[in-house]
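hey so u asked for the seq, here:
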Amino acid sequence: MKNRECPYCHQTVSLKRCLKYLLRGTDYSTVCDHCGRSIRLAKEPTPGFKYSFIVGLLSIYLPMQVCLYVFHTTFLQALLYSLPVVAVSLVVVAYLTLRSLFFSL
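ran it, structure tokens below
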């Protein structure tokens, strides 16, 4: 079975429906766009909340500490310098999560 494929009609589930899993979590079922049947995720796409939380904290903490102690910037400047790192890490996590979505009956 391919990524984001409905197990009933074998059509690709829309990206809009899959993006809801990033915001709400994986404990609910969704409806296929083509056949209208209820589908659920086969397994949790990420290894766990603990790892995601740690990576999220480190993606903002480490660049801020480098800016504060190495470049001797103010707190607001360090925050502004670390925002692109956070944005890139969010895009990478979203891409990896959407790539690992597999639906089951």
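The CA atoms of residues 51 and 57 lie 10 Å apart. The mean pLDDT is 84.
lmk if thats what u needed
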